[in-house]
Amino acid sequence: MTIGIVVFMLGLAVMMACSGWEFLQPVVIASDAPIPKVVKNVKNVGLLISIVGLALVVYEIQTRSP
Description:
Elements: H1 2-28, H2 35-63
Keywords: Membrane, Transmembrane, Transmembrane helix
Transmembrane segments: 44-61
């Protein structure tokens, strides 16, 4: 179960980092740069990673012997 939790936390960390970058983005770079699109794609990948982590947790709970 710990592997699923670690994967879930990794996905959350990626999404939080991307949210922080989106918050700071107007200050850091000009708005015409293509970086915001990349950040949104990475944020979606983080969401997928966290969903996979939750699925791993559920799978490990269901296959655990009593």
